[in-house]
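User: quick one
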Amino acid sequence: MKIVIYHLYPDLLDLYGDRGNVLALLARCRWRGLEAEVRNISLGTVPNFAEADIVILGGGSDREQTLLTEDLKQKAAELQAAVESGLVVLAICGGYQLLGQYYQTAQNKKIPGLGLLDLYTVAGEKRMIGNVIVQLEQEWQQQLSTIYAPSEAGAKSLALPTLVGFENHSGRTYLGSGLKPLGTVLTGYGNNGQDGFEGVRYKNVFGTYLHGPILPKNPHLADVLVALALKRKGLATALQPLTDDLEIAAHMAIKERFSNK
Ligand code: GLN
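Assistant: Done. Structure below.
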């Protein structure tokens, strides 16, 4: 058994340490004795998404997003079929925007997205930059409690009701009425700086504005991705908790430093 991670456009979508998400997934699999492999997929290839367990898309500048327009069209149908059958996807910022219908840049240029999710993004005048703290939706926290084998260390990660990260985007993302956010913003801007929402969750797809990278300091999110991928393969999902002292310390340090008092 092997977890296959497709890293989409690693040469074009990789801002503010996004590649660290792939490294964190690999490390957390390895620490648990799970075999994992990364396949880098960029322009010009339409991979067999049926072979992927987890797909990762990082963030990118408007220029890089524009360069992808034609290539995304080639990949969209296969990726959509896999998403509907439960493929696990983590998409960050520019990659998150590309899951939707379009991203309209500050120059009024419409970059078409993959059209996988009912969301769209329009650039505003002010860039939204800074550290972010997100309160996870209640149903999220319930899901977390099902992924670990019970133990004290597992309980530590479970006790994190938040996500932390760093955002830098001019795009404002609006979710269609059928879509749920990942959570609500406690500090920062999130999806659009207006409705208080951050990110999106659809089936096993997670979109978020959080760079940093997000997974090393949000080990509970990393583990949800792994657990969902195992479940889709028909395997037992109760993950062995890891110690996670450093990961939790990093999470808490950001929370303490940037909480709106
Ligand atoms: N180019 C997009 C924006 O500015 C995404 C940026 C990013 O991925 N950080 O909104």
